[in-house]
Amino acid sequence: MVYDLSQHGGVFNTFVAELRDERIQQDPMRFRRNLERIGEVLAYELSKKLPMEDKMVTTPLGQKEMKVIREQPLIASILRAGLPMHQGVLNYFDRSDSAFISAYRKHKNSEDYDIKVEYMACPGIDKRDLIICDPMLATGSSMVMVYKSLLMNGTPRSVHVVTAIATQEAIDYTRRHLPDTACIWVGGIDTELTAQSYIVPGLGDAGDLAFGEKLQA
Ligand SMILES: O=P(O)(O)OC[C@H]1O[C@H](OP(=O)(O)OP(=O)(O)O)[C@H](O)[C@@H]1O
Ligand SMILES: O=c1cc[nH]c(=O)[nH]1
Ligand SMILES: [Mg+2]
């Protein structure tokens, strides 16, 4: 299932618009904070799909039964660009465990590259609700490769992909390789990719805008 939050309107679209805006992008702190805010909103939306339980809460004046999330999900993020979204999701699932996994494009030439996954720090994921954060789904290859690597640590009960901007092609590719029950939570869907596999209009290079330009690998 794909949930495109841009269709709901509201202030969420302002965060995504600022993320895309080349002038506002000049402020890396605001860029990171917007990624974090998008992570927060998507975390809230996906929280409605998590298993709930009844809990009796004692206030200073009495008791109230409330429906709350049964278990905190596991939050996995793809380095580097996933880090600010990770913080946003963690702000709402504040007792969650975290996993970090690297994925980067190792170039053979300006258009041709392999995706390298070289680092993974992850607890067991068996029977847990797994959230994977990465702001950009361009081809979907990094997400699928990371998901397959995470499976070395167990089989999750549910999978939620949290992303700011995706192409339809990446969504289709991701859905083909993740379980049928996986949910994709996205801030906007674009149609094109450049020859270098950048999303058009997209926003540019999310990792570089958040953390500074790196030398090409
Ligand atoms: O869907 P794909 O075609 O695989 O592309 C998306 C990937 O590209 C970006 O990472 P990048 O390689 O720029 O690394 P960075 O986060 O270190 O900048 C982005 O954060 C995704 O991980
Ligand atoms: O458009 C894109 C594609 C991959 N990574 C990015 O940061 N942006
Ligand atoms: Mg990048």
Which features does this protein show?
single chain, 217 residues, alpha/beta, Rossmann fold, seven-stranded mixed β-sheet, three-stranded parallel β-sheet, 6 helices, 16 strands, globular, binds 1-O-pyrophosphono-5-O-phosphono-alpha-D-ribofuranose, binds uracil, binds magnesium ion, glycosyltransferase, Uracil phosphoribosyltransferase, PyrR_bifunctional, glycosyltransferase activity, PRTase_dom
Secondary-structure topology with pairs:
Layout (H helix, E strand, L loop, with lengths): L1 E3 L7 H9 L7 H20 L4 E8 L2 E8 L4 E6 L2 H11 L5 E5 L1 E4 L5 E4 L3 E2 L7 E5 L2 E2 L3 H10 L7 E6 L1 E3 H10 L5 E4 L2 E2 L1 E2 L5 E2 L5 H6 L6
Parallel strand pairs: 1-13, 4-5, 4-9, 9-11, 10-12, 11-13, 12-14
Antiparallel strand pairs: 2-3, 5-8, 6-7, 15-16
The structure holds 1-O-pyrophosphono-5-O-phosphono-alpha-D-ribofuranose, uracil and magnesium ion.
Structural notes for this entry:
This is Uracil phosphoribosyltransferase. It comes from Wandonia haliotis. It holds the Pfam family UPRTase. Keywords: Glycosyltransferase, Transferase. The longest helix has 20 residues. The two termini are 34 Å apart. Helix 1 runs antiparallel to helix 2 and helix 2 crosses helix 3. This protein has one domain: Rossmann fold (3-Layer(aba) Sandwich), CATH 3.40.50.2020. Helix content is 30%, strand content 30%. The model has no long low-confidence stretch (mean pLDDT 96). The protein is of the alpha/beta class and 217 residues long. The strands form five sheets. The protein has a seven-stranded mixed sheet with strand order 1-13-11-9-4-5-8, sandwiched between helices. The site of 1-O-pyrophosphono-5-O-phosphono-alpha-D-ribofuranose has 21 residues, from strand 6, strand 10, helix 4 and helix 6.
